[in-house]
Amino acid sequence: MAVDTTTGSSTGLPPELHDATRDETSLRRFLHGLPGVDQVGVEQRAAGLATRSIKKASKLWAIDTAISMVDLTTLEGADTAGKVKSLCAKAKRPDPERPDVPQVAAVCVYPDMVATAAEALRGTGINIASVATAFPSGRSSLRIKIADTEFAIEQGATEVDMVIDRGAFLSGRYGQVFDEIRTIKQACGDTHLKVILETGELATYDNVRRASWLALLAGGDFIKTSTGKVSPAATLPVTHVMLQAVHDWHAQTGQLRGVKPAGGIRATKDAIRYLVAVHEVAGEQWLTPDLFRFGASSLLNDLLMQRRTQLDGHYSGPDYVTVD
Amino acid sequence: MNWEYAPAPESRAIANLKPNYQMFVDGQFVDGGGEPLKSINPATEEVLAEVATANAEDVDRAVKAARRAYDKVWGKMPGAERAKYIFRIARMIAERSRELAVLESLDNGKPIKESRDSDVPIAAAHFFYHAGWADKLDYAGYGPDPKPLGVAGQVIPWNFPLLMAAWKLAPALACGNTVVLKPAETTPLTALVLAEIIRDADLPPGVVNILPGAGDVGATLTTHPGIDKVAFTGSTEVGKLIQRSLAGTGRKLTLELGGKAANIVFDDAPLDQAVEGIVNGIFFNQGHVCCAGSRLLVQESVADEVLEKLRHRVSTLRVGDPLDKNTDVGAINSAEQLAKIRELSASGEEEGAERWTSPCPLPDKGFFFAPTVFSQVSQSMRIAREEIFGPVLSVLTFRTPDEAVAKANNTPYGLSAGIWTDKGSRILWMANKMRAGVVWANTFNRFDPTAPFGGYQESGFGREGGRAGLEAYLDV
Cα(A150)–Cα(A185) distance, rounded to whole angstroms? Predict the structure, then answer.
């Protein structure tokens, strides 16, 4: 791990957090000194909070907020310019018959599709998120990961979704993971960096908490659960642990960082459960697309159908929303 | 962003509330000789229903009916046959669970999410569990052919009205006893719906009799010479009176009384889940829980962090309409109990503890008390020694495990304790040192019919639930 020569004041971190990144040993000691996560307890809490009953005006507000938080995603080998363009059209006007539906937060694509998306979204204010760093496995050299990131940004990405090296993390080489995130962050400059932890491969909640803090220490603007290519992807308890991390980070540093669950969130009911968790675990100020996103594709149409149901008083069915 | 959850109330109509409720004696619903009582909704202070109460003759009639049922039918019925009735009761509770949950929340003030997700399902589970024992008592470890005791007189409290009725009735019936049960004065309604279920399950007349009334009915019942066994859950004060009155009679007694449980958080605990456990320990059911974790013992090295997390978490608790599905903390059961909580909280301030109260809004009507945390509490203060039975937590600190043990055990009670640490060996060491009937590790307030529940010292004696709980209703 590279020795950090910056001083505490220049990173803006309180001394105990700044010291945590001094060297590999300090980092390990800090991450292993974080309080553990009790599996039964966090799952019980997540299940309990999932019983909140969100109705009427509060439901409509949640649906619109969730729409505005969607990173509308296509990450397939089969992606084409046509597919990406139609996704961008959907992002701009999710429900063509209802112009009051908010735009989504971002469109998320592979780096080679960024230019197409940037062209289609010019002037809309919708962000162009690109996965990078040898997504989804992260199995390549740092040189290639940097090049991948720089390419995405050159093409017009305003947000980069990087993956961490889970192999390095699981074998305890935290310094390497930290350096890699920090290097990509430097390559990003002002571009928003989301750090994908791939919690399905980290397996334990203790690991999720450690990886969350590692990514926050290294400068990630967002911590993101999953690539969507590994099962399980996002789960409520994992998101609880991550929301708790950004809450605690804010309490210690005054800095606001975001959370993005991705993969497997398909229904409005689930999205609302996530928003309740954001509201009650992290806090009210995280209820904004600047600090919370959903990585999803099919979720958007379910949100649109539920929105119509709320406003029209009856279900209309999947043929009344566009399939893109 | 300000996201207000819209009200999501469960419909009151589901409770099938009736203007009048009668007592259940010898298989019949009948009027009582006592002055009818009015059960009120503690969340609105409105009268819910008028309920018949028993007088001394009614108690006598019920005990005689129970004796007849015991001698003629229930006492000699094969266990496998008794089991069928008990299974039927369990099934019918599950079928009428929504009605029971709404009625319980109306009458008691507890939030619907608790009556729906805890009280009613666990009540059904107790009947299911004990139905399974009825034909296997020979193998319970109490000899080859353990006999029932006869007629049981049971008196239950207002904090878990239906659940406590289930805890009392299910083992008594499974073991072949007949019962006269008195529900609490302020919460008689669900026990009387349970009486309907018992009637509809075709239980032979007299096997279960339910007599609402105040403490005088309880006193008449527990001292009635026709009773073979007394089971009481309630205050230590009344428990002592009952024990005194039964001394020398040879009748069997089990008591489940007050508590002042310690919830002990070590510095290596999973802190976020410990905070959840602390909240669940003291704010579950408005703190009206005899085994509530009302004393938080936290290691000094993490005390500030835990308190900060705790205050943030407690400020997210939603206090209000018990029927709203999003309510976390409901109404205090009675004006009398609210006054007691206020008086003890005031004493905490007077004695120098630091009071923090959740800034949550409270309804204008009804008996409500905002969740409150006292820090800087010492063992000598009343709020550290006396049972508050409300949403009030006293926080004390300790430096070493030995000090934690000494402080936790420094109480005349001994019902429950909680231990929070990631170290398994310390859990086992602590659990052995705790003078408490129930010790939870990295969790709190978890109830299961298979796990025996009961106390030490002034928290009472005898166990309910599990194999150990059968002993209270068998002649062993």
Answer: 11
